[in-house]
């Protein structure tokens, strides 16, 4: 166990705790009873109390799990759980990511981890492990770029839950006019973080000064999503959700969503352009997403 845990162990001893739960940042726990389940698994009446016990966690994209079955071997879900049909509690060489440790085992765990008996309970599956791939350095909110590698977390955090109900036919979209709908698409957290990311980038550009490769024909102050490296992530959302939404709203329409230019407009008193005029651009449909509430509509 890394020496960085020493202060934590010392604090546990100072407070006379009976157990210590180690939880790494990459873990997402969705079951609020996880600690209760681990305590019950450690105190199993069938065998002596286990000094270290952990749940079964999996990294969704590559299948890696949170334990080492034999020393030096990083276990794979299919090999250990499915192929060998192991169920319940099993002894492993090392539990990783999440583990509940009995206080009397802490000192030995810190000095010689191999001598401490460790178990994983395959019945306890409270969440999953986040992938660190795709992490964008230098970004204010790097989790915005996690869609490809952490799809479940990204969707839960950034996609409005009411959108799924509309797609499934469990709710109806607000119809503002003929073929014109209001639909909650992203969460407020997504909108806030995207605005902050754009302001962090800061290179807002006006049409009359636009020398970008993806230039604009319309009077506006804007940043292209490609400039912050976010166009691919947005298009992944388009392919996975807009297609189903269009079919729901427009009676089975199954056109393949395509976007040639993705950008965010900025309206504020200190920008050169404060309007986006009506125009024809040849699009079959358009999505306009309001990122905040702080604006005034003028006729």
Based on CA atoms alone, the radius of gyration comes out at 26 Å
Biggest beta-sheet profile: 5 strands, mixed
Taking the alpha carbons of the first and last residues, their distance comes to 65 Å
Overall geometry comes to elongated
Structural class: alpha+beta
- The count of domains is 2
- Beta-strand content: 15-25%
Q: For the residues shown, what is the average pLDDT? A: 81
Number of strands: 15
Low-confidence stretches: none
Helical fraction: 25-40%
Count up the helices: 8
Query: Topology as H/E string?
Result: HEEHEEEHEEEHEEHHEEHEEHE
Placed side by side, the strands forming the largest sheet appear as 1-8-3-9-6
General description of the model:
- By secondary structure, this protein is α+β, with helices and mostly antiparallel strands.
- It has two domains: 3-129, no CATH class; 142-265, no CATH class.
- Helices cover 26% and strands 19% of the residues.
- The chain has helices at residues 6-14, 34-42, 77-83, 106-111, 151-158, 161-167, 188-201, 231-249, and strands at residues 19-23, 27-29, 52-55, 64-70, 73-76, 89-92, 94-95, 98-102, 118-121, 127-129, 174-177, 180-182, 205-206, 221-224, 263-265.
- It has a five-stranded mixed beta sheet with strand order 1-8-3-9-6, with helices on one face.
- A hairpin with a 2-residue loop joins strand 11 (174-177) and strand 12.
- The chain is elongated, with a radius of gyration of 26 Å.
- The protein starts with 5 loop residues before the first helix and ends in a 34-residue tail after the last strand.
- The mean pLDDT is 81.
């Amino acid at each position: 166990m890394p020496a960085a845990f020493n202060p934590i162990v010392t604090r546990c001893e100072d407070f006379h705790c009976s157990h210590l739960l180690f939880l790494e940042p990459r873990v997402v726990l969705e079951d609020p009873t996880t600690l209760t389940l681990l305590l019950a698994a450690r105190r199993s009446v069938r065998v002596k109390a286990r000094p270290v016990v952990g749940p079964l966690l999996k990294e969704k994209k590559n299948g890696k799990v949170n334990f080492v079955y034999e020393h030096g071997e990083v276990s794979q879900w299919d090999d250990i759980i499915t192929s060998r049909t192991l169920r319940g509690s099993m002894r492993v060489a090392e539990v990783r990511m999440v583990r509940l440790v009995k206080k009397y085992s802490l000192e030995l765990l810190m000095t010689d981890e191999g001598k401490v008996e460790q178990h994983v309970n395959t019945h306890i599956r409270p969440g999953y492990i986040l992938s660190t791939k795709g992490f964008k350095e230098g970004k204010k909110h790097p989790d915005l770029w996690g869609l490809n590698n952490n799809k479940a977390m990204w969707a839960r955090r950034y996609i409005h839950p009411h959108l799924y109900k509309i797609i499934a036919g469990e709710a109806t979209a607000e119809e503002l006019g003929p073929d014109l709908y209001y639909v909650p698409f992203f969460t407020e957290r997504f909108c806030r973080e995207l605005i902050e990311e754009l302001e962090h980038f800061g290179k807002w550009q006006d049409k009359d000064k636009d020398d970008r490769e993806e230039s604009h024909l319309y009077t506006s102050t804007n940043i292209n999503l490609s400039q912050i490296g976010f166009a691919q992530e947005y298009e992944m959302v388009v392919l996975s959700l807009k297609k189903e939404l269009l079919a729901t709203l427009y009676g089975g329409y199954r056109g393949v969503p395509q976007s040639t230019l993705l950008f965010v407009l900025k309206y504020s008193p200190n920008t050169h352009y404060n309007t986006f005029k009506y125009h024809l651009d040849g699009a079959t449909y358009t999505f306009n997403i309001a990122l905040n509430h702080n604006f005034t509509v003028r006729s």
